[in-house]
């Protein structure tokens, strides 16, 4: 597939794009800075400018596409990961405006150009736990996609707005628009750097609902979305199948979620950030990672 990928130079994208290239796709990375990786095409684009987005989505990816003499090829899919990635990097109003406007521009252009699939990054923060002021617990566990999404912060608010935008464009167009509620992205080197502290003090993972997603497995999730057609608008939790702490899930519940409703039985170390929907509809089966590494 010929894929227009936004934000491919970021923490997640720089692992997802190589995975997609390995699957045989051609990827144009639209970002403010290029991704220095063999085989990836780069185009500097300000996604808050609708004219630049439209132009980029109707452009050649690189000089070699001039050779056939058959005109500019179209994109088969858009993967939209670009964003201010959390609070406290830019002022709140800038974070919100950037993330909402860029997503609107990308989806609008894709729909009007007849691109049949858009995959966009939403966030675990939409459930209102991650950046809450104080200790905010979920309403029940495991946290699935039906859980209320009422966040307090500008980043998560922007992600909720993006989901509403996507749902509306999907209803208008009928294309596939899949939102990924991505949990805390962990790069391979971060297992040695971060996880010993999580083993020592599980409470450090409370705001992430004790979950994580290996950046390489996020590539698998995107590929499963690319290969699964006809779902319309859907949102999916994205995480690895195990928790990010050493204690059993039963103990996580006892220590941190005592008294909360538990809606189903959970495995000994199963994540409380539910990924059953992605498993069922997409065939998403990421391997366990950190316990193997450490």
From TrEMBL:
Coiled-coil residues: none
SUPFAM superfamilies associated with the record: NAD(P)-binding Rossmann-fold domains
InterPro entries for this protein: Epimerase_deHydtase (IPR001509), NAD(P)-bd_dom_sf (IPR036291)
Top-rank taxon: Bacteria
Cross-referenced Gene3D superfamilies: NAD(P)-binding Rossmann-like Domain
Pfam families: Epimerase
PANTHER family linked to this entry: NUCLEOSIDE-DIPHOSPHATE-SUGAR EPIMERASE (PTHR43103), PUTATIVE-RELATED (PTHR43103:SF6)
Record's protein name: NAD-dependent epimerase/dehydratase family protein
Source organism per UniProt: Litorisediminicola beolgyonensis
